[in-house]
Amino acid sequence: MHYSGNMKKVLLTGGLGYIGSHVAVELIKQGHDIVIIDDLSNSEYTVLGRLSELTGTEIYFELGDVRDIDFLKGVFQRYEIENVIHLAAKKAVGESVNKPLHYYDINVSGLINLLKVLEDHQAKKFVFSSSCTVYGQPEFLPVTESTPFGDTPSPYGKTKQMCEQILGSVAKVARYEVVSLRYFNPVGAHHSSKIGELPKGVPNNLVPFITQTGAGLRDQLKVFGGDYDTPDGTAIRDYIHVVDLASAHVKALKVDLGPYTALNLGTGRGYSVLEVIKAFEEVADMKLNYSIVDRRVGDLPEIYGDPSMAYKKLRWKAELGLTDMMRDAWKWQQGLAK
Ligand SMILES: NC(=O)c1ccc[n+]([C@@H]2O[C@H](COP(=O)([O-])OP(=O)(O)OC[C@H]3O[C@@H](n4cnc5c(N)ncnc54)[C@H](O)[C@@H]3O)[C@@H](O)[C@H]2O)c1
């Protein structure tokens, strides 16, 4: 077993979550030593064991909350942290409308705490999990990194805008480089089916809802809106395989980028809800029970990004397509039932 206590480390906050766990695997594959912080508010401790199994590596884990500054200081004293990837946050758009303070507290105060602690330590890079929600409903598609921030009605979207603004200011005076990665719609799971998305309760996102309906855990999938101004009337998103997304984080640590960089991480191709359902039906070889209902308040008709800047800066582009995303999401769902 690989165990190197004095190697410089990458700190992953929220590293037992859906995206963080995949980032952990890609980092270890590329020879990084990692420390994970997570408060398990939206993940399970068993993910740590799965990560060790998958990578054959001992992983340092610190149970705690990014809002607890003394806890963070302790972590920075115990390990030599060279890079930070900050994923820990609340992410449910709808919930954020009902619990705005909770979202501002964790997403914004959590970030500020981490940045305060970093002031007393040497780090090379700070990578932040941002989102395409910062663009709101853009006037032109695809969105590029110079598309201005738009009106994003949810507190969740606003926290991502605020965090990027804070990071932009801090980057002007910090000794480390800051990278905001604007994720489009991460879906799928690791091909080993050892890690994937673990939605608590009723899923907010399309793909877990599809796979749970396919597995018989939900009676029917509701497709919100069939009358959008899109080719088949359903909403369009830029889905990206979570493993592709994870590999961009590793590349972002490698390359010198300057004080502050924001990058779109998507495939550059939009798929409608009906196209996603069709891809699932082909992969799972079944007909999905779905019905088209009214639009959901706050949903955008269409968004997809231009990922060419990420290729230019990181030499990164998504390799996996919609079929891969659906195959791995379905395999993961089937594994959960066992
Ligand atoms: N999944 C998406 O569709 C998506 C899209 C764009 C951006 N993002 C962002 O990516 C990041 C990761 O998202 P995810 O999908 O993996 O979510 P997730 O909920 O699966 O993972 C987040 C992890 O952070 C932990 N966490 C939450 N609050 C914490 C706190 N106060 N202290 C310590 N740990 C805490 C949770 O327990 C969880 O393990 C988030 O910042 C999210 O906003 C996600």
Summarize the helices and strands and which ones pair or pack.
Blueprint: E1 9-13, H1 18-29, E2 33-38, H2 46-55, E3 60-63, H3 69-78, E4 81-86, H4 93-98, H5 100-118, E5 125-131, H6 155-171, E6 177-183, E7 185-187, H7 206-214, E8 221-224, E9 236-237, E10 239-241, H8 242-254, E11 260-265, E12 271-272, H9 273-284, E13 290-293, H10 308-314, H11 322-337
Parallel strand pairs: 1-2, 1-4, 2-3, 4-5, 5-6, 6-11, 7-10, 8-13
Antiparallel strand pairs: 9-12
Bound molecules: nicotinamide-adenine-dinucleotide (NAD).
Nicotinamide-adenine-dinucleotide binds at residues 13-14, 16-20, 37-43, 65-67, 87-89, 91, 106, 110, 129, 131, 183, 185-186.
Side-by-side strand order of the widest sheet? 3-2-1-4-5-6-11
Helix content: 25-40%
What is the beta-strand fraction?
A: 15-25%
Q: What's the count of strands?
A: 13
Report the CATH C-level class of the domain at 9-189 and 239-266.
Alpha Beta
CATH fold topology of the domain at 9-189 and 239-266:
Rossmann fold
Distance separating the two termini? 28 Å
Describe the protein in words:
This protein has helices at 18-29, 46-55, 69-78, 93-98, 100-118, 155-171, 206-214, 242-254, 273-284, 308-314, 322-337, and strands at residues 9-13, 33-38, 60-63, 81-86, 125-131, 177-183, 185-187, 221-224, 236-237, 239-241, 260-265, 271-272, 290-293. With 338 residues, the chain is of the alpha/beta class. It has a domain at 9-189 and 239-266: Rossmann fold (3-Layer(aba) Sandwich), CATH 3.40.50.720. It has a seven-stranded parallel beta sheet with strand order 3-2-1-4-5-6-11, with helices on both faces. It has a two-stranded parallel sheet with strand order 7-10. A two-stranded parallel sheet has the order 8-13. Helix 3 runs parallel beside helix 5 and helix 9 crosses helix 11 (322-337). The mean pLDDT is 95. The structure holds nicotinamide-adenine-dinucleotide. Nicotinamide-adenine-dinucleotide is lined by residues 13-14, 16-20, 37-43, 65-67, 87-89, 91, 106, 110, 129, 131, 183, 185-186.
